[in-house]
Design a protein that fits this description.
Keywords: Lyase, Magnesium, Pyridoxal phosphate. One of its GO terms (biological process) is D-serine biosynthetic process. Strand 3 (about 70-75), helix 4 and strand 4 (about 95) form a beta-alpha-beta unit. The chain contains 13 helices and ten strands. By secondary structure, the protein is of the alpha/beta class. The chain is globular, with a radius of gyration of 18 Å.
């Protein structure tokens, strides 16, 4: 298990690399919901997502352990983060991405001097390939979520929320492999267990919801079909899943059309560029049975690396 002390150490280690992202507020959404609707703006984070936190923590530790080569498997955001920090430290990096990876994310990896390899459409395709490349180059594989250094790094989001928001009541967090939500859960629940933390994942990639229901790690759905490409995982992690079982208040599953609406609302009314994966947190706030009226709610906007050429297919009208 990752502890609050691990997260505090991670914050010290990554402080010079990451941004402490702002808390945004939507007056219109607050009026609509009757809640104080706030947003943790990780879409404005360096490399465009929260992933830089965990990646920086892990790659710095890997360098301390003597790593001379780094690999990662990623739908884009984790790969960008690993490529960025590896480049900063002068370590060669290869990122294995899906064959349908968002072009803007692939280009960003290359702009950070990362080498790109393509493999399949799911993490089950990408991870073995990345591990093989690491082995062939006597390197270190940096997993996207299932490692203590990754979870501790992502947990710094939770630390910042507790420091930036007075009397926070509810936090909605996107869930893919579970690194972000596991880190946030550890930080928040060890600081104030009364704060409710809800994970959110697409119905088409609901492996965590099924796993929690069954009490064991399961695969479910067809994650390659969800528009939330950053949440396309086959199953929760061996490390992250027990943390969710211990701490999470509930796991909310959301529909694709509702994700489109939430994403479009953020673009139109808040003027913020987010990706579909980031929109699932607001989707849950707007559509779930969680009672948020009169409460202070933080929606984690996990990333903003969207392919601008696909926006026409992703956005919908928010008014009739």
């Amino acid at each position: 298990m990752v502890s609050l002390e691990d997260i505090l150490r991670a914050r010290e280690q990554i402080a010079e690399t990451i941004h402490k992202t702002r808390i945004l507020r939507s007056s219109q959404l607050s009026e609509m919901t009757g809640a104080n609707m706030l947003f943790k703006s990780e879409h404005l984070q360096k490399t465009g997502s929260f992933k830089i936190r965990g990646a920086t923590n892990r790659v710095i530790n890997a360098e301390k352990e003597g790593a001379k080569y780094i690999t990662a498997a990623s739908s884009g955001n984790h790969g960008q983060a690993v490529a960025y920090i590896a480049n900063q430290l002068g370590i060669p990096a290869t990122i294995v991405v899906p064959t349908d990876a968002t072009e803007s994310k692939v280009n960003a990896i290359r702009n950070y001097n990362g080498k790109v390899e393509f493999a399949g459409t799911t993490s089950a395709d990408r991870i073995p390939k990345a591990k093989e490349i690491a082995k062939d180059n006597d390197g270190v594989f940096v997993p996207p979520y299932d490692h203590p250094d990754i979870v501790a790094g992502q947990g710094t989001v939770g630390l910042e929320i507790t420091e930036q928001v007075q009397d926070v009541d509810v936090v909605f967090v996107p869930v893919g492999g579970g690194g972000l939500v596991a880190g946030i859960l550890t930080a928040i629940k060890e600081i104030n267990p009364d704060i409710k933390v809800y994970g959110v994942e697409p119905k088409l990639a609901n492996d965590t919801a099924v796993s929690l229901q069954e009490g064991k790690i399961m695969t479910a759905g067809n994650p390659a079909n969800t528009i939330a490409d950053g949440l396309r995982t086959d199953q929760p992690g061996d490390l992250t899943f027990p943390i969710l079982q211990k701490y999470i208040d509930d796991l909310i599953v959301v529909k694709e059309d509702d994700v489109r609406f939430a994403m479009s609302f953020v673009y139109e009314r808040m003027k913020q560029v987010i990706e579909p994966s980031a929109a699932v947190s607001l989707t849950a706030a707007l559509n779930s049975d969680v009672d948020i009226k009169g409460k202070t709610v933080v929606n984690v906007l996990s990333g903003g690396n969207v392919d601008l050429f696909k926006l026409n297919d992703l956005l919908v009208k928010t008014t009739k």
